[in-house]
Amino acid sequence: MSELLVGxxxxxxxxxDAEEAAVAERxxxxxxxxxxxxxxxHWARAEFPFALIKGFADLGLAGRKRxxxxxxxxAMEMAHADASMATFFGVHAGLAMGSIETCGSPEQRExxxxxxxxxxxIGAFALxxxxxxxxxxxxxxxxxxxxGDHWVLNGQKRxxxxxxxxxxxxxxxxxxxxxxxxxxxxxxDTPGFTATKIENKIALRIVQxxxxxxxxxxxxxxxxLQEAHTFKDTAKILRQTRSGVAWQAVGVMLxxxxxxxxxxxxxxxxxxxxxxxxxxxxxxxxxxxxxxxSLGLVVRLTQLQDAGEFRDEHSALAKxxxxxxxxxxxxxxxxxxxxxxxxxxxxxxxxVADAEALYSYEGTREINTMIVGRAVxxxxxxV
Length: 383
Fold this sequence. Notes:
alpha+beta, Butyryl-CoA Dehydrogenase, subunit A, domain 2, Butyryl-CoA Dehydrogenase, subunit A, domain 3, two-stranded antiparallel ribbon, 9 strands, oxidoreductase
């Protein structure tokens, strides 16, 4: 690539081969030209930039086989531009398409994935519920009842990204017959399916999260994901996307560091740039240390994926560690910008707010800690 990211001190970018680097550069150029200039405005108005969907389609990223390193790098690049747009892409191409790819039959993959890869159909992923977040594996309350060649779904979902405009939503429900969690692809016009936008968010405001209500929603057996038999199958998808969130956290850190560094060089107090003061340099170096250690962690994570040695504790530790370091970095960046850090004009305020959502979704720090703790001790701390 022609230009390194400002915070890539150890040149992890050099690990991309020439073809991968070209893809990453093309994505970075698109994000810089199309996403960055409109991000603050759409974030302030909590509106999604639908005009950009064609641009995402033209990039040809969804559904295309590529190395885990490149997939992670692209997630980082998107979050470096805007965490909301990274989340939009992750929900569509990761959670929704990943569910169909992992748990769908060959016929189902052929029926849905090509149109989704071209962004002709947008996907959503409905797992979290109003009363079930961290305990959704055992506490999932949305039900599915078999009725001949159809299933009847009833229940509620919450915090479902893309759901206000998604063409299809992967809904996870508990089969009343065997008490196991199964997946269903539900079209937006299905009777009994309603999605209501969640208002007044302070993070990821561009993402159109929704409350979903399913009332005697009839779904044909042909739209039940044929290889989703228990929550263990759902967990396979979460394992993959959790690592993507770790990469997104690195992207947010990189953006925060970049903003703070540029500001420290330009902002003058006491007759000199604030970047010349020891305390400011200390914060910048702490930020760079967090970025660098987190980048090293997620890069190694992709190597384990490629080697077929990728386990739940690997993605759980990555998600818990990087999002915690991210929280520190955006806070220090805001500190360097002082009062200017709380207005959108200087960008960092958006990253500070959005970091709070990344810190919580795809498993809280506490839940991911217990996943890793169980792996290293052999003892479960889950209730």
